[in-house]
Input
Amino acid sequence: MEIEPFGNQILIQPMQKKSVIVSEKKLFCDYGEVIAVGDEVKKIKVGDIIGYTVWGLNHLEIDGIKHYFVPEDQRFILGKLPLSKRVAS
Output
């Protein structure tokens, strides 16, 4: 199934291995891979691994896995994982 987010929305597939990262603001967040972005998204691209908070996000299930729509907004996206810090899922 191919989903195209609108506007500033980012579609994230959570990492298979359940992990939580603590952000600089001392918030706990999940992380996942960006699989699609809307046409207004400026700083995030497909393939990025980002830390995000799931509270208040819309989601949908694709092949039994919950995916999240996240606006490109610092209230939900807490950071991007550098290539050198990424772990295999």
Summary: The chain has a mean pLDDT of 81. The chain has one domain: 9-84. Strands lie at 9-14, 21-22, 28-37, 49-52, 58-62, 65-71, 77-80. Residues 6 and 34 are 14 Å apart (CA to CA).
